Amino acid sequence: MSRNRYYLSITDLAHARGADPRFAYAGAGPNDFAAALQAALREEGLFARWRAAQPDPDAVDAGLAAVDPGAEVSAKVADLRTDVELLTRLPMSVVRHRLYLLIGPGWQLRDMRAA
Description:
Order of helices and strands: EHHEEHE
Radius of gyration: 13 Å
Number of domains: 1
Largest sheet: 4 strands, antiparallel
Strand order of the largest sheet: 2-3-1-4
Distance between the termini: 11 Å
Oligomer: single chain
Shape: globular
């Protein structure tokens, strides 16, 4: 699978949180968020905890369990938002799921390019 570069923006990182506090981002800034998202994409921990909390863990789509040990995430404040650059082999469906667990709907995909 080829690598893609995703460009995201978060309008208000200080208040961006997933709906369930057990999985939500709890950091303080762009570097904390980049580290949290990178770990969520590289390791199975966040997904495994979320899956175990589902009423029927065996019914969860196995495709969402994918990880990319080489995923790279950087984030910085730009104007009044946080810009995030993500390089990964994971499909957008997996990236989207991890983002929703961490920060809910408070993000926007601005661009995507083959890396």
